[in-house]
Specification:
Layout (H helix, E strand, L loop, with lengths): L8 E2 L4 E4 L5 H8 L14 H13 L3 E8 L2 E12 L4 E9 L7 H17 L4 E7 L3 H10 L2 E11 L5 E9 L4 H13 L1
Parallel strand pairs: 5-6
Antiparallel strand pairs: 1-2, 2-3, 3-4, 4-5, 6-8, 7-8
Length: 189
């Protein structure tokens, strides 16, 4: 299966639905009250962000999902930087509502995405990237079991012109069984 193919994924905790404009109202509500630090981003306009992600999907660069919990969309996540020829993908552009933070939702979503990447799409590497200063994101990625590959210094410019150092992590196929077990155990707690 292609990394770019829209497909619904689900487990006992969450459902990942291919992102569609119909998710806009739920996602706009989910976005309320999120105050992220300067080194993170949540869409200002959810409908515009949905349109952007769908355009990226149509160009073969992204596979976006709505994160659905208790019957409503509570966030977004994607396969991005898709390199189908090399079976390499990044999981990113993820945000979830405050109401589901520190619940099983994000762990369950990552388990679905990683399972799909490794077991269905035969990925040889799944990557995660975050801002050097985003310590909560770095800690969360490390809790998943991803290993730090390195830091891309002065990797990109922020909206305010500041320079961003990007920390790159990855999980490889031989690491996946242990990562999967760790995620499953976290969900059992």
């Amino acid at each position: 299966m292609l990394l770019t193919e829209p497909i619904a994924l689900k487990n006992d905790h969450v459902r990942l639905e291919p992102l569609e404009p119909r998710h806009a109202n739920d996602l706009t509500a989910a976005r309320e009250g999120l105050d992220y630090a300067w080194y993170t981003s949540v869409p200002v306009s959810v409908p515009e962000e949905i349109d952007r992600r769908l355009a990226e999907r149509d160009a073969g660069r992204m596979n976006p999902w709505a994160v659905v919990s208790s019957g409503r969309a509570v966030g977004m996540t994607t396969f991005c930087e898709i390199d189908q020829a090399n079976r390499h993908v990044e999981i990113g552009y993820t945000w979830i509502a405050r109401s589901v933070q520190r619940t099983a939702v994000n762990t369950a979503a990552k388990l679905l995405l990683l399972t799909h990447a490794f077991e269905t799409c035969d990925a040889i590497a799944v990557e995660f990237r975050t801002h050097w200063h985003n310590r909560p994101s770095r800690a969360a990625i490390e809790r998943l079991g991803a290993r730090q590959d390195g830091v891309l210094r002065n990797h990109r410019l922020g909206p305010d012109g500041s320079l961003r150092d990007t920390v790159v992590y990855s999980i490889l196929p031989h690491e996946w069984p242990a990562v999967r077990l760790g995620l499953q155990r976290r969900l059992e707690r």
